[in-house]
Specification:
Chains A, B: Its main location: cytoplasm. Two copies of one chain form a homodimer. Chain A is an alpha/beta fold and 359 residues long. Chain A contains eleven helices and 14 strands. The radius of gyration of chain A is 20 Å and the shape is globular. Chains A and B meet through strand 6, strand 7, helix 6, helix 7 and helix 8 of A and strand 6, strand 7, helix 6, helix 7 and helix 8 of B. Strand 7 of chain A pairs antiparallel with strand 7 of chain B.
Chain lengths: 359, 359
């Protein structure tokens, strides 16, 4: 019976289509559970560049910061690829994450049993399923490290970006990872490159210190190159992975790819004390299929479930959305990206409606 | 009918066993093709730490630098894991690469048709095989970038490592990659994170400039997170990949893992003008199976083939070694790591002998 403000940023490409389906589901949740959701749409990414010249305009920032959570679609597309990097859609995303203080990006890579045959790995490797949660630090590391730039030194250009972490940045994301591991399989693998990088040696030290507060969690450390291997060789060995922004970018995408159904994977970016959590599908803006009712809205709908669970503390509602997705899959409905012979092929809007009907 | 000096660094764990088999093959090559190989053994890695306190002693450096090429096994193991990072076995490897000026690391990830069922990917994904060559920059990037360290700032520890590339470092490795692509499928994919990192923007600029000299090569650019995905989704789409030291570390290991037979994969590190090329298997020192005649010597023997080809310009000899490996596989011989029902299981020394016999 609550009343909540949700900033809705459809963004570019298939963003608006998939967000529309999540909104359909949200309004059913509102009716069924007697909540009122105040949906506050705002321009973001390429759409915002077109309307106001920048990817994350102040008006959008105001809407986001005064909301309980932010739901967004995807940003970017060929139209904006040739712009100056400083005002490209991606910069808007980085600025939004930073403004929201969203230091912990939760990226589940789960193999839905109904979609096991979509998995890119050999069936015997994934007989035990895949259920990994990557906790990626999101507002530090070489993404934001200074100094950074391109300069002429000794007569030639030199490009540099500083991979840097302060103790408190590592500690807070490690705490989120340990807390999350406590609610799951109690195994946490911290990924770094401590055999080479000073920044990784501090990462490992601080994670090891935080571990003292979580004696029940089994902590291991793995080098990033080995982690990239083990995700392929034995993904079932992982429960929760915690790592920095750059390694997390790479490994969470690798883990997602392995499941073979990236159109199904949600994400949450949380952490700020009085700032909203951000919820978005893992897939991109897919300009090639935009506007054709071909996109899979499930990743966005599951992102909405994470929003209900983490930012609004509505776990029964989140469970209902997740159960509805599972029921629709079990009933054999598939968008094109996950279609197999013998299944029922549906478009983006039909998929959204089917899920909404089952909430 | 040449005479060559080869520095041999067996190293740690299974290093000595697999190197011994490569040496067996080399001596047959010497006899058959009437070359004399002066093998100059030296301590390296943990073995060198034990004998002289440092992983890459000056005596070893002298041996390497006065040789035509360096063949080595693997370094590291639990015995040295607790040492100060400054004198750990890995530091020796980095120092050797740097001393040799070996800026281009060539890492083939190939699926041997006889071992197709070892591949970790779904059979339909790899129906067209996998034959990728990763050209990894090896002596720059955040591996060696300064400033780097851990310091107290504003009352807390801060760790930092500088991801930095100068124009000439990018240019020379890009040239190697384009040259290599010309001899293969003429497709080159440059991997960076130019949507976020300044250092990657320079990388992309310089690679694009170098491309002008190779109009026959089809150049594409890919972000590292997407590359980590595409290696899983469609590895057959790649021919040559060129990337920086850190991204190359991760992606070359991911590509190797996908083939499922990391015990088969060689590598070459080349580039210095008057310095030796370095040749080593991709796998590590595997302390758990060391000394039990269980290791697969093929990766080291194929590294030897690369040594003959690239450093000594002996391509008939290199072909003979590669053909011998293929013949032994075709005859059904397998070490434990690649064993399948119905094949003939052999140990490390038998495998080496079988290959030597067929040269
Ligand atoms: C678009 C890009 C800046 C972004 C990132 O690297 O963080 C994306 O890859 C992601 O993972 O959300
Ligand atoms: C041992 C380590 C320093 C090394 C590296 O990261 O370069 C290894 O992973 C490799 O790829 O050869």
């Amino acid at each position: 019976m609550g009343s909540y403000k949700i900033a809705v940023l459809p963004g570019d490409g298939i963003g608006p289509e998939v967000v529309a389906e999540a909104v359909k589901v949200l309004s059913i949740v509102g009716k069924k559970f007697h909540h009122s959701f105040d949906l506050r749409y705002a321009d973001f990414g390429g759409a915002a560049i077109d309307s106001s010249g920048v990817p994350f305009p102040p008006a959008t920032q105001d809407v986001c910061m005064s909301s309980d959570a932010v739901l967004f679609g995807a940003v970017g597309g060929p139209k904006w690829d040739t712009l100056d990097p400083a005002i490209r859609p991606e910069k808007g995303l980085l600025a939004l994450r930073k403004a929201a203080g969203a230091f912990a990006n939760l990226r589940p890579a789960k193999l839905f049993s109904e979609l096991a045959d979509a998995c890119y790995l050999r069936p015997d490797i994934v007989a035990n399923g895949i259920d990994i949660l990557v906790v990626r630090e999101l507002i530090g590391d070489v993404y934001f490290g200074e100094p950074s730039g391109i300069e002429v030194r000794d007569g030639e250009r030199v490009g540099f970006s500083n991979m840097i972490y302060a103790e408190h940045e590592i500690r807070r994301v490690a705490e989120v990872a340990f807390e999350t591991a406590m609610k799951r399989g109690k195994r946490l693998c911290s990924v770094d490159k401590a055999n080479v990088l000073a920044v990784s040696r501090l990462w490992r030290e601080v994670v090891t210190e935080v571990a003292k507060g979580y004696p029940e969690v089994e902590l291991s450390h793995m080098y990033v190159d080995n982690a990239a291997m083990q995700l392929v060789r034995n993904p079932a060995a992982f429960d929760v992975i915690v790592t920095g922004n750059l390694f997390g970018d790479i490994l969470s995408d690798e883990a997602a790819a392995i499941t073979g159904s990236i159109g199904m994977l949600p994400s949450a970016s949380v952490g700020g004390a009085n700032t909203p959590g951000l919820y978005e599908p893992v897939h991109g803006s897919a300009p090639d299929i935009a506007g054709q009712n071909l996109a899979n809205p499930v990743a966005t709908i599951l992102s909405l479930a994470m929003l209900l669970r983490y930012s609004l503390n509505l776990s029964a509602e989140a469970d209902a959305v997740e159960a509805a997705v599972a029921a629709v899959l079990a009933a054999g409905y598939r968008t094109g990206d996950i279609y197999r012979d013998g299944m029922k092929r549906v478009g983006c809007t039909e998929m959204g409606q089917l899920i909404a009907d089952r909430v």
